[in-house]
Amino acid sequence: MNHVLAFDLGASSGRAMLGRINGGKIELEELHRFSNDPVQAGDRLHWDILRLLHELKQSLLKAKHRKIKLSSIAIDTWGVDFGFLGEGNELLGNPYHYRDPKVNGEMEKVVEQLTATKIFGKTGIQFMSINTLYQLSHLKRMDSPLLREAKHFLMIPALLRYFLTGEMHNEFSLASTTQMYNPLTGDWDEELLEAIGAAPSLFGPVVQPGTAVGRLSEAVCEELGIESVPVYAVAEHDTGSAVAAVPALQQSFAFLSCGTWSLIGTEVKQPVLSPRAQELNFTNEGGVYGTFRLLKNIMGLWILQECRRAWERAGISYSFPELVKLASEAEPFAAFIDVDDERFLQPGDMPAQITSYCEQTGQLAPSGAGAVTRVILESLAFKYRSALQQVEELSGKEYEGLHMVGGGIQNTLLCQWTASAIGKPVWAGPVEGSAIGNMLVQWISLGDIPDIWEARKLVQDSFPIETYEPQGEEQWERAYASFVRITGR
């Protein structure tokens, strides 16, 4: 039986998940888990890329100590962020974090220079201030020595893979998140790169999920005392991997990948580049096996995570289950927020930002952790409803329900409220969607599974799927009207 190892790195934590297929079912084991903490250095926010590399090596050592023979490994992470290699392939600094506030305002400058219509028509990607296009434009505008000295641009998984294999390959699903990849030409868009002052020679070819991209290098194997293992490019954007693991048996389905970010959409064969898609600020990110993910990025449980950190700084510690229980006891529909308001993007005192939003919109601000949590979760559920309606409009299809995957489905209150808000069933599972999708592409590449549809059936057979039916639909319908009136969404 082929054991595969999936390195699944999220914006707050990472894990090494071991998987095998046994008796027609997937068996999962968490081999190693670690935090992924941003580091503030001066006035810049960074990822600690070498710490992440260290944790990947610790995972390989744990497999060695367990005498587990790996057939392959692969990495998936969050999108948009990157690092540079310079002369001699030396790492040039720690990669910046997408929440680094220095980039604020850059998107507006680039859009004014190039026009939104041109950028969207070339990339099909949602306009977000965190996109790689604006990060690179900022570096050029500041005359950054990083950009001057760079020889190679690598997205985060590609950078980590380079350290493990010595080979450089950017992958399709990650490249698509940059807003610099042109799906119509199947390559980086040189006009956009040149417009922001980034040399096209930095970027290199883009490979598809399922491509063999090297083996563990001799140096890494000698350091760790292990045998070399093949390394594959999977859908290296964690959402792409999560969608690969959606246990849908019909080819037309709607999904919600729920975690620090929420991403709601559907799979399409060709990007949707219509004026209406641009108007609704939808995105067409790369998927697996010739697909695109027509979706909307929504801020997600980041807002609740930041509230929890703010309360901890004030000396009050809540677990997430405690917050969910408090929310269930709080007054329903007391206030609403637009979770995508820019004030919620940066780290900081998130309860104060929620108070600010409520006061600005003429609402009574929530008081206490339970009330704040309820406002966040109800607002997320309504945002999902709005986005799902837009997905149906753009795709020209009506979906029977919504598949939810990812760590956010452990919040059963959010799952139930989402079903009630959209007025349709929610099918929740699996929790480890990104890691499972990562593994599925490895198994398909190894010949253990014939195709993605057999892979999705295997997921359905292997993991419990919880069904949530709508409740109190009339009450939720009235509250949604208030949400739209207050947020304009």
Would you mind describing this structure in some detail?
The chain has 489 residues and is of the alpha+beta class. The chain has 2 domains: 3-233, ATPase, nucleotide binding domain (Nucleotidyltransferase, domain 5, 2-Layer Sandwich); 246-429 and 450-489, Nucleotidyltransferase, domain 5. Helices cover 41% and strands 20% of the residues. It is built from 19 helices and 21 strands. A 7-stranded mixed beta sheet has the order 17-18-16-15-19-20-21, sandwiched between helices. A 4-stranded mixed beta sheet has the order 3-2-1-6, with helices on both faces. It has a two-stranded antiparallel ribbon with strand order 4-5. The chain is globular. The mean pLDDT is 97.
Assembly classification: single chain
**Shape category:** globular
Helicity, as a percent range: 40-55%
Number of domains: 2
Instruction: State the end-to-end distance.
Output: 50 Å
Architecture blueprint of SSEs:
Elements: E1 3-9, E2 13-22, E3 25-35, E4 39-41, E5 44-46, H1 49-65, E6 70-76, E7 82-85, H2 106-114, H3 116-123, H4 132-141, H5 145-149, E8 152-155, H6 156-165, E9 170-171, H7 172-176, E10 181-182, E11 187-188, H8 190-195, E12 206-207, E13 211-215, H9 218-224, E14 230-233, H10 238-244, E15 254-258, E16 262-268, H11 275-279, E17 283-286, E18 292-298, H12 302-313, H13 320-329, H14 350-360, H15 369-395, E19 402-405, H16 412-422, E20 426-428, H17 433-446, H18 452-462, E21 466-468, H19 473-487
Parallel strand pairs: 1-6, 9-12, 15-19, 19-20
Antiparallel strand pairs: 1-2, 2-3, 4-5, 7-8, 10-11, 13-14, 15-16, 16-18, 17-18, 20-21
Helix pairs in contact: 10-17, 12-15, 13-15, 15-16
